[in-house]
Amino acid sequence: MDEVQTIEAAVLSFYRGGSEQQKETHKWLQQVQNSPQAWSFCWDLMQLNKSSEIQFFGAITLNSKLRSDWAEVPKEAHHELKQKLLETIVLFGNGPKIVLNRLCISLGLFIVHMLRHPTVIEEVTNMFLQEQLGNLSKVTQIEILMAVLEGIPEEVKNIRTQIPRAVVCEELNRNAEFVMQTVVTYLNEKLSHSAVEPHDMNGLINAAKCTGTWVAHGNVHLNDREGMIQTLLKAVHYCYWKEPKDDGCLMPEENELAETALKSLANIISSYATQNAKYSFTVINYMKLFLDVLVPILDAEYKENNDNENLALMIYALFISTLECFSSAIFAGIVTDSEEVSKVYTRTVDMLIKCTDKPGTYPVDESCSTYAMEFWYMLQEEVLSMDNSEHKKRCLEAIKPVYAHVVKVLVRKSQLPTESSLHKWNDDDLEAFRCYRQDIGDTLLSCHDVLNDLMLDVLSEALDESIMYLSYDPQSTESWTLLEATIHAFCSIAQKIEYTEHQQIVKLLKVLNEIPYEKYNDKLFGMALETVGAYSEWIGDNPKYLPSAITLLVKGLNSTKASQATLGLKDLTSECQKEVIPYALPLLDACRTALQEGHLKNAEMIRLMYTVGNILSVISYENIILYLDAMVSPCFEELQAHVQNNDLSEPTKARVVLRLEMISKLFSSLNIRKPTEGDMDKGLVGMGAHKLPFPPGTPVPGAPVQPILLILEKTMGLLKNLCTLWIHDETVIDTLCKALQQALTNLMDDIKPLLTEMCCLVLSILNTNCVVSAADIAGNFILMFYKDQDCRQLMVQLFTAIMDYNFNQMQLNLGKLSRIADLIETFYAFNTRISKKIPICYSEVQVDCMKLVDYATKCIMLPETGPMKKSVAFITMFVKESTNHPVMMNVILAQGENIVRSTFLCIGGTALRTQVEIFADIFLALNFRYPAEFIQWMKLLEIPNFPTAFVSATDKEQFMRKVIKERVNKRLVQDHVRKFAALCRNIVEYENK
After folding, report:
1. Domain ranges of the chain
2. Model pTM score
3. Confidence of residue 245 (pLDDT cuts 50, 70, 90)
4. Closest to 533 measured CA to CA, from 553, 548, 514
C-alpha cells in the first residue's frame, strides 16, 4: 500500500509540479510502469475514490503493459485478467471518459493477444450485445463495444504479441465480416428511426469509425461494400437533413458523426486503390451515390462564411480521394459512349468548378476552394499522359473549354484583400493566402499545359476586363485588385512562354508601362515589376521590348517596391546581358543614383550590385574602370574609415557586413571573360566589345586584367586589416571569406598573382577562427593548386592549418562534440573532397590520419544529422581510396574494427532509426576493399548483448551472412541494416501482407 501511495503522490506531483520536477518525475514513473509490479498496482490506482489523474495513470499503465509486456502474464492468469478488465470497464462505464477510453483500448489489446482463440471476438461482442455487463445501460454497453472493436486493427500495428503475424492477419480477416455485419446492422437499426436519441450518438460515432478501421481486412471485393457505403452515406444525410436548424449549424455530435462517416468512406475507397482497373464499374456506381447524396449538401453550403465549412471540406476530400484512387475510371467519361460514365464525369467536373469558385475570399470567407486545385492537375496529367492518338486529341479538345473557364475563376479568386477588408485578416490568414496564391500559380501552369497558346488569349481577355473594371469608377482606389490578379496570372505562366513574339505579351508590357500606379495601391506596381522580371528570358528573345522593361524597373528603384525592381533587374541583366549593352551606361547611372540616395534596404543594395556586375561585364574596359571607381570605391572607403576608427560596435558591424556582402555579390557576377548569350555555341567568350577564341575562365595572353583582380590588388591590405580587427567575430569573417570565395570562383587561375596573399589571409583565419567559409575557400585553393609545384608549399600550409585547428577543437571538446557540430560537418565535408580528388595529400603531408579516422568514428555517433552524415561520407570515401595509398591503408587496417564497432552502436540505437540506412555505405566500402578483414571485424557481433540485448545470436549471424554476401547492391544492404536496427531496438517490423 505504501508503494501505491508513493506512486499516487508522484503522479500528482507530475501534473501539478514545475517543469524540472516533471522531468524527473516522468522518468521515475516510466521506470515504475515498466516494472512487473505494474500489473498489480495499476488496478489499485483505478478506483472511483482516486483523482482522475491517478485513475488515468493506472489506465495508461495497463495499456503499456498489455502492449509491451504480455509475456509476463502466465497463461493461467489470462481469464482473471479478462475479468478484471471487464469489471473495471463496468466501474468506469459512466466516466471519466478519458479513463474509459483507455480501458476500451486495453480490452482491444487483450483480444489481439487472445486471437489464437477463434471465438474471442464473437464472445466479447455477444457479451456486450446481450447486456451481460453489470448495471450498465444497453446504450453504454454498445458504445463501449464499438470503441473496443474499432481499436483492434489499429492496435495490431503497434503491439508486440507472441502470435505470429500471419496468424494475426488471418484471424482479423476471418473475423472482419462478423464485425462489419454487427456494426452495419447497428447503424442501420438506429438510422432507420425517424429520430436518433442523443444518447445513441457516441455509439454511432464509434460504429462509423469501426467501418473505417476494419475495411482493410476480410478479403472482400469492393463491389460487396455497397451496403456499408449506403449506410455511411445514410448517416451523413441524416445528420445534415434531419431537421431545420435555426442557425444552420450542425450540433457537435451530428457534425462528428457525419465527418467520421466521410472519413470511413474515404478509407473504404482508398483500401482498394491498387485494384484500379478491376473496379471501374463499381467506382462509377459509388461515385454516382456520392454525387446524389453529398452534392445537395454542398449546394446548400455554397455561400460565404457557412457554418458547416469543415463538413464541406470533408465531402470534397472524399471526392478528391476517390479521384486519386480511381482517376482513370472516372476520367474515361471525358469522351465515351456510356451515358452513365459521361454523366458522372460531367457532374464531378461541375462540382469541382463550383468548389474552385466557392463564394468569398480564401481563407477568411471560405476554405474549400484550395481542395480542387489538385483535381485540375490530375485531369490534365491523365489526358496528357495518354498515348498520342485520336482519343487523346478528342479528350484534349473536350477539356479545353473547362480549363479556359477555370483560368478565369482562378484569376478572380487570387485577388488580394483590399485595404478596407484587411481588418478581417490576421497574420496566419495572410500567410495561408500567400500559399494559396502560389497554388493558383501552379494550377495555372497546369492549365497552360492544356490550353497552350489559347491560355494567352484567355488571359488577354481577362486583362481587357480588368482594365475596363478599373475604368468603371476611376475615382475608386480599390478597383485595382482584379488587374493585379490578372498580371499575377501572366507572371505565373512566364516560364511556359516561348520566344515567339506573342501579341498578348506585347500588349501586357504596353499596359504595364501605361498604368498610373500612383493612383493605386503599391502592390499593383510590385506585381508589374515582378512580371517584367519573370519575362526576362522572353525579352531577351525579343529585345525591342527591352527599353520599356528597363524604364519600368528603373522607375521601381525609386519606389516602395524597390525589392521587386532589384529582382527584376537582376533577372533582366542575367538573361539579356548581351542585349543590354546599348542601354548599359544609363542603367549603371540609375543604379549608382539609387545606391547613393540611401533609400534602398540592405538586401536591395546587395542584389543591385549583382546587376552592376552583370552590366560591367559587357561594357568597354575603360568604362568598367570608370564605373568601378564610382560605384565600388564608396564600399571600400567606408570599410577603411571603420578600420581607422577601430570601431567594433554593433552598428558598425552591420555596416561592415553590408559592404562586404555588396562586394561579394559584385564579385559573383563581374567577369569580363564570362560567355555572353549565344557565344558558347561558337566557342567564343565575351569581353566587352572583344570576342576571343578561348574557353571560359582561360587567361587570355595580352588581355586586360580581370576587374576583380584589380579590386583585390588595391584592397588586399584593407581586407587584411579588416580581418585582423574582426578576427574573433564569426559573422564578419564568414562574410569576408564568402566574398573571397566568389572572387576565386570567377577568377579561377587568374587569381594566381594574389594567391600567396589570399592564402596568407585565409591561413590567419584558420589559425584563429576556422569559420565554415574559411575551410571552404581553403579547400578550393587546395583542390585547384595542390598539383601546381609553384604553389605546393602554400597548399601544404593551408592543409596543415585546417587539420591542426580542427584536431585541437575536437580534443578540447572531447565528450561534448555536439558543441562544435557545424565545425565537424564542414571539416569532414572538406576531407571527403580531399579523399576523392587528391588522396595523395594524406601521404605527402604530415597529417595524423589515425586521429582523423578515429575522430570520424566518434562523430558518426553524434545526434546531429549534419556531422553524422558528413563523417559517414568521409569514412566511406577514405576506405574506397585507401587501397591505392599505403598510409591510408594502414589506418583502415588499424581502425577497421573500431569503425565497425561504432557503426554497430549507431545501428543499434545511437542513430535515429530513420537514418540508419546511411551506415550501409560503410559496410559496402569495407566489404569491397577489405573483404577478408571485414569478415573478421563483423565477428564483433558474436559478443553477447552487442550491440543490444534485444537481438538474438541467430539474428546476428543471419545479418552478418547477408551483409558479407553483398559487396555492390546498396539497396539490399540498406534493407538489411534497417531491419537489423529494428531488431536491435526491440521493434517488430511488420510487412504488408
Report:
1. 1-65, 497-619, 629-673+706-793
2. 0.82
3. low
4. 553
